Amino acid sequence: MIDMGTSAAFLQLADVTSALDSTLTAVRAAGADPRYRMGGTGAALLQGVRLPVGDIDLLVARREDVDTIAAALSSFPCLYAASWIPESSQYFARYEVNGVHVEISTVEVEDDSDAMECVGRGPWQHYVLVTCGSHRVPVVRLELRLATELRRDRPDRYEPLLDHMAARGFDAGLLQRAMTAHGLPPERRRWVNDRLNGSPHPR
């Protein structure tokens, strides 16, 4: 279990893995096999980054996949029934699984970039597989998450990501494309590069 050293409201690694394993086991038991990616801070936590996590985010490509997963989770409390949210262009549902909020959604925004976390080709092309119980979970790469957190200006999230990537390595080209796709100014991109290259980052 990872101790975040922060608010008790934040999830521990054991919370995330338990809820995710139960979710995916329920989906499998229903005979479903939707294409999905795990994003958000939960995906970073599963990759070893110590950072605050509030929920589990599952991205799917089709609205029917949201409905399929929602049906598989019907024995768990439904906090937000599957429905269209025009403000964010999402078909979205939220369930509580083992005390953890599990959110399933599409993000229906057109984008040509391959380096955004939730739209376009990015999450489908740039991911790693992480074992969670009896499942192999496709989680979005940290470079895409870091760019999201930099755009949101959440240092309690991006600082742990920077520390982890500086120590463990990263795809510099992908990160540059992600920061550019988010419109981060040149001086901010330079600061990130300096920060990451200030420590060894073996490939």
Using brief descriptors, characterize the structure shown.
5-stranded mixed sheet, disordered N terminus, disordered C terminus, 8 helices, two-stranded antiparallel ribbon, 203 residues, Beta Polymerase, domain 2, alpha+beta, globular
Describe what you observe in this structure.
- The protein starts with 12 loop residues before the first helix and ends in a 6-residue tail after the last helix.
- Strands 1-2-5-4-3 form a 5-stranded mixed beta sheet.
- It has helices at residues 13-29, 40-46, 63-72, 122-125, 142-152, 155-168, 172-181, 186-197; strands at 36-39, 56-60, 78-85, 90-97, 100-105, 127-132, 135-140.
- Helices cover 42% and strands 21% of the residues.
- It has one domain (13-197): 2-Layer Sandwich (Beta Polymerase, domain 2), CATH 3.30.460.
In short, what is this structure?
The protein has 203 residues and is α+β, with helices and mostly antiparallel strands. The chain contains eight helices and seven strands; from the N terminus they run αβαβαβββαββαααα. The protein is globular and about 50 Å long.
- What is the CATH fold-level name? Beta Polymerase, domain 2
- Taking strands numbered 1, 2, ... along the chain, how are they ordered across the largest sheet? 1-2-5-4-3
Give the total of beta strands: 7
**How large a portion of the residues is in β-strands, by DSSP E?**
15-25%
Major beta sheet summary:
5 strands, mixed
Number of domains: 1
How much helical structure, as a percent, in the residues?
Answer: 40-55%
